[in-house]
Amino acid sequence: MTALAIVVSWLLVVGCQPAAAPSPAPAAVTPGASASPLASAGADGWIDLFDGGATHGLRAYGGGEFPSDHWQIVDGTLRTIPGLGVDLVTDAAFEDFELEFSWAVSPGVNSGAMIGVQESDAPSWTSGPEYQLLDDAGHPDGEDPRTSAAALYALVPAAPDKRLAAVGDMNRSRIVARDGHVEHWLDDELVLDYDWDDPALREAIGASKFASWPAFMASRSGRIALQHHGEDVWFGSVRIRELPPAS
């Protein structure tokens, strides 16, 4: 067989081979995709978001992974790494729930726990109302009851006789939300409550910085967020359970 015949035969064989199937495209990752309730819920319904040793169902706001460059577990606490702030959010969304958490701040530090958070390119506080975490004596926000510790940030003050732990010591807090009624607890005391659609609250929102953010308190169902304000704040145990509607 001549060299030309060999080449022609090779081309015919190659041309008859089936085309290789294209490699499948990697699955798209959508920040915020989740299931609810979380599979880690115990028999009593409680979900340990942070149990002192590990987090469960918490990730970066707008991201898919736990932001280990911004948060760390130290001596049984979930602690921010001061610097660029990256909030934590739950994988799942919640509407009627009870959230329990303990927290402490360094002198002059500000943070918060937010509910009803809707993920977007905007910060978490532009959609989720905030349970303020603060060193009241060492931060300017402590001078206004509406922005002091345990307040519904910038909107509703906490009770003036609230018991706040010394800076650096753990406070025990609870948020209970059911059928649009929300309670803020501090050290086992109810320090404020509000109704999601209360006309007076909506009027206060319209007169606040939140008026320019249409997503603010737009939905009772949303993620829980722990705020990283760039400063040193830490959490002890954090747990949540879904509640049945009251009616």
Describe the fold and architecture.
- This protein has helices at residues 3-16, 199-206, and strands spanning 47-50, 58-60, 71-74, 77-80, 88-90, 97-105, 110-117, 130-134, 171-178, 181-186, 189-195, 223-226, 233-242.
- It has 247 residues and is mainly beta.
- The protein has one domain: Exo-inulinase, domain 1 (Jelly Rolls), CATH 2.60.120.
- The relative contact order is 0.22.
- Mean pLDDT is 87; it is low at 1-37.
Keywords:
Jelly Rolls, 8-stranded antiparallel β-sheet, 30% strand
Q: Could you please say which CATH topology applies here?
A: Jelly Rolls
Mean pLDDT: 87
Shape call: globular
Task: Estimate the strand proportion.
Answer: 25-35%
- Give the strand tally: 13
SSE arrangement, N to C: HEEEEEEEEEEEHEE
| Uncertain residue segments | 1-37
Q: What Rg do the Cα atoms give? A: 25 Å
Query: Class by helix and strand content?
Result: mainly beta
CATH hierarchy: architecture: Sandwich
Count of discrete alpha- or pi-helical segments spanning 4 or more residues: 2
**CATH class group:** Mainly Beta
Distance between the termini: 90 Å
Q: What is the count of structural domains?
A: 1
Proportion of residues in helical segments = under 10%
